[in-house]
Amino acid sequence: MSVAFPAVDGTETIAFDGCTLCIIVRAAPLPEVTTFYTPNEFNLQVGKIVYAANTEIPRHCHRPVVRTVTGTSEVILVQKGRTILDIYDDSKNLVASREMREGDVVALVAGGHGFRQIEDTVLLEIKQGPYSGVQEKDRF
After folding, report:
1. Which neighbouring-strand residues pair with 86?
2. Residue 8: pLDDT above 60?
3. Calpha distance 81→46 (Å, rounded)
4. 47-48 vs 82-88, strand pairing mode
5. What number of other Cβ atoms are within 10 A of residue 130's Cβ?
6. Residue spans per domain, the chain
7. Whole-model pTM?
8. What is the pLDDT of residues 26-59, one digit of tens each?
9. DSSP state of 128
10. H/E/C letters for each residue in 47-116?
11. Half-sphere exposure (CA, 13 Å, Cβ side) for 87?
12. Most buried one in 27, 50, 51, 134, CB count within 10 A?
């Protein structure tokens, strides 16, 4: 059973049979405080970090941490244009379609997905890498 959980903060979680397939984070509204949209058990973290004027992020580096990651999650930011995001379950059945606009972000964490461009579109893609080639993808 497909389930969509819209939230008052401009996010929507799309799930199927109890498995989260994606989390859509709209460009607006902006949060007033730092907000993370992904739960701790996901293999990536997506959030909006809020800072007041005249503050700073202290300089730092990240210590090496060994992580074991199975699968490939992606975060897609629509930088320009409009696109239709199609979300599929693990059996490759269409579960939901959503229009994405400039500034919208989607964390794709399970199942399958595709994009149909309505306008000239530029997507910024962030995922675990490096990408090793087409053998990573199961096209359907």
Report:
1. 97, 114
2. no
3. 22
4. unpaired
5. 6
6. 2-50+67-125
7. 0.87
8. 999 999 999 999 988 888 899 999 999 999 999 9
9. S
10. EECCCCCCCCCCCCCCCCCCCCCCCCCEEEEEEECEEEEEEECCCCCEEEEEEEECCCEEEECCCEEEEE
11. 26
12. 27
Contact, 42 vs 109, CB < 8 A? yes
Give the dihedral of Cα atoms 97, 103, 108, 114; nearest 10 deg: 40
Separation of alpha carbons 133 and 127, rounded Å: 14
Three-state SS for 35?
strand
Q: Residue 16: how many CB atoms within 10 A of its CB?
A: 20
Amino acid identity of residue 136, one-letter, is E
CA dist., res. 84 & res. 96, Å (int): 10
Kindly state the helix (H) or strand (E) to which residue 138 belongs, with its residue range.
none
- Token pair belonging to 76: 């897609």
